[in-house]
Amino acid sequence: MLRTRCQLPDCSKSPTVFHVTHWKAGSQWVRAVLNAADPERVVQGKDSPSWFFEDPIIPGGIYTPVYATWQQFRKIVPEQSPERTFVIVRDPRDAAVSWYFSLRYSHPAGYETVSRTRQMLRGLGKREGMALVFNDYVRDLVEIQRSWLESGSKVFRYEDLLADQYGVFRQIFAHCGIDISDDRLRKIVSRFSFRRCTWWRLGRENARSHLRKGVVGDWKNHFDSELKRYFKTLYGDALIRAGYEKNLEW
Description:
By secondary structure, this protein is an alpha/beta fold. It is 48% helix and 11% strand.
């Protein structure tokens, strides 16, 4: 059953907030910041990506993260609902690389699909393994991204969030109507910044860490010519629609 810590009597007077995203776009990082800023309103879900679809929406709660296309989301939250929704997207190429290393090494293996994929990846070379991830995992990610970009909703880029963490989080909080002082927000953002969470590595990549790297453009270090060509075939148009490329000459 869905659990909530939203016990304040005036909680329902606040707009219900939905942080929508796709996998490998800093979802747990954003959740940590929201939880630190307004812990009484953050809805605690089941240990399953589908938890959002299984219980009634709690008015005034903060739902983070929600993995859903616009169409899936609107089946649960009608457009006329009093809510504030923001979406975070990431370059699908960097997300694909993050997915590969996560599935290969660091993602909790409690889910059957993760365990099965990890077993398969262990028997494949890196190129073949990444191609498998392109087919089986990036497809859903791109569909979530495409649906929200076409909906006209408030969309933020993971890349912008990395470049200006305080500035973008300030925009997110203003959009969501979450009242917080500048000083407190700066402290929370600093506390959960990627750099602070990986200080022990001093910039060195750790393939087996769930916080492996997080940098923009890391796909260039992992895509060879064949992987680039294959990714263009599958998702080249999606990159252009999302504004990550102007054409297929990359």
